[in-house]
Design goal:
about 15% strand, TIM Barrel, alpha/beta
């Protein structure tokens, strides 16, 4: 049977969000946690991860947008804050990003993860999928191969029939477009990826009502991203959605829903 990896992104974004994610893992409602090692509270929040079940995978959520970087980046983040995703996407598409500075920042985030966890990540992905952008992806894959060769990397591509069967097709196609070729590039370095991907929505709809559709037409390793949380952090535009997601995930019979689509969970 295929496996469902239900991954909570943004661990470390704030302490209440991190606590909410750990609670879900302890309740058997998620089986992967992606961590923002760029955040100033990361090392402290990382201590909570000692209390999650052993089968829960812990990964690195590389962050190149919106936050304060770990290193000084005079060209990439001249004001001391990483760019937003839209201008970064445009610049990367034109190969107009300072890849040397980005490489330094990626290395620092890998180091921060390993220092807190005392091991490499189980998987690697990127906040707002920036890890898949042109030029940047080559740096991410090379750093992963060097520091975490057994890790798998998030691939946002999927079969057209699968994308069309799930909600918010436009967003899914956009992510898939930016990720095209990533799986092949990862394989060339001996790295694995997930085989299907879902979880896109507008952060406004009824998450519980949408969730079953994320499970449709899975691949052998079906990755579904989610963003549960609690509390409010200034600038968090999806704070209300995080709370709704956390409540829905606690309530939904995820294992049964997964089984109905031929998926094993937890895997």
């Amino acid at each position: 049977m295929s496996r469902l990896i239900l991954c909570s992104d943004d661990f470390g974004y704030s302490s209440p969000i991190s606590k909410a994610i750990v609670t879900l893992a302890q309740a058997g409602k998620i089986n992967a946690i992606s961590c923002m090692a760029v955040m100033p509270g990361w090392a402290e929040d990382a201590r909570m991860l000692a209390d999650v079940p052993a089968h829960v995978q812990i990964g690195l959520h590389l962050t190149l947008t919106g936050e304060v970087p770990r290193t000084r980046l005079p060209r990439f983040a001249p004001a001391g804050r990483l760019p937003e995703i839209d201008p970064l996407t445009r610049a990367a598409g034109r190969w107009r990003v300072p890849l040397d500075e980005i490489a330094t920042e990626l290395s620092a985030q890998f180091a921060a993860f390993s220092a807190a966890m005392r091991r490499p990540p189980d998987f690697v992905d990127g906040h707002q999928h920036a890890h898949a952008l042109p030029g940047i992806r080559d740096l991410v894959l090379a750093e992963t191969a060097a520091r975490a060769p057994r890790a798998w990397v998030r691939d946002c591509t999927d079969r057209a029939t699968a994308l069309l069967s799930r909600p918010f097709v436009g967003k899914a196609i956009g992510s898939a477009w930016h990720s095209r070729g990533l799986r092949r590039a990862a394989a060339a370095l001996g790295l694995r990826t997930n085989t299907s991907f879902a979880g896109h929505y507008d952060f406004r709809r009824d998450y519980a009502a949408l969730f079953a559709r994320f499970l449709r037409r899975p691949g052998a390793m079906h990755l579904v991203m989610c963003h549960p949380g609690a509390g409010e952090r200034p600038g968090d535009t999806i704070a209300a959605a995080r709370i709704r997601e956390a409540k829905a995930l606690h309530r939904l019979p995820i294992a049964d829903m997964a089984a109905a689509e031929g998926l094993v969970f937890p895997a």
